[in-house]
Amino acid sequence: MKNQPDPVAVGTLLRHVLELLDQDVAKVYEEQGLAEYRPRFSPVVRALLAAGPLSVRDLASAVGVTHSAASQTAAQMARAGLVTHTPDPRDARRRLVELTPKARSLLPRIEAEWHATNSAMAELDAELSLPLGQLLTEVAEALRRRPFRDRIAAACQRQDRSSRTAG
């Protein structure tokens, strides 16, 4: 098969699947005349619509990403004219991320894409043995319970014990 990562290389496979999904969503935005809009902007837009202006820290928490990832996404969105960064009236040390009128004017097209993407995801999930979102949620929960680093360390210890007893 063309352009298929090794199924044992799970990280590569996850990045490949994400790339396939994001590429096609980005193409849909481009076809709608939203070339500057990226799929990674949608969770930020949704969070800001639900909660209003947020600090980067609160935005990261609402979206479920690191502070650094939220900051980078907000900076990209600011360059595209979709958000502004304004001083927090309650704490001058913080800045709030807020949707611009330009972003709000794009909402009908963005929301239409959200609904179409959800429908397409339901169709894809119907082809899978387990819905992708459910599986990824289970993976994230398992890794919160026991980080992958701990699992690797335990496997190394088992291998080390095994090689000592074999030799």
Notes on the protein architecture:
With 167 residues, the chain is mainly α. The protein has two domains: 118 residues, Arc Repressor Mutant, subunit A (Orthogonal Bundle); 36 residues. Helix content is 68%, strand content 10%. The chain has seven helices and three strands; from the N terminus they run H-H-E-H-H-E-E-H-H-H. Strand 2 and strand 3 form a beta hairpin. The mean pLDDT is 92.
Which short descriptors sum up this protein?
167 residues; Arc Repressor Mutant, subunit A
Quickly describe the structure.
The protein has 167 residues and is mainly α. It has helices at residues 10-31, 41-51, 56-63, 67-79, 101-127, 132-145, 148-166; strands spanning 54-55, 83-88, 91-99.
Helical fraction: 55-70%
CATH architecture designation of the largest domain:
Orthogonal Bundle
What is the 3D shape?
Answer: globular
The total of beta strands comes to 3
CATH class of the largest domain: Mainly Alpha
Strand content: 5-15%
The average pLDDT value, as a whole number, equals: 92
Largest sheet: 3 strands, antiparallel
CATH superfamily of the largest domain: Winged helix-like DNA-binding domain superfamily/Winged helix DNA-binding domain
The third-level CATH topology of the largest domain is: Arc Repressor Mutant, subunit A
Q: How widely separated are the two ends?
A: 41 Å
Total number of distinct structural domains: 2
Order of helices and strands: HHEHHEEHHH
| Class inferred from helices and paired strands | mainly alpha
Order of strands in the sheet with the most strands?
A: 1-3-2
Low-confidence stretches: none
> What is the CA-atom radius of gyration, in angstroms?
20 Å
Tally of separate helices? 7
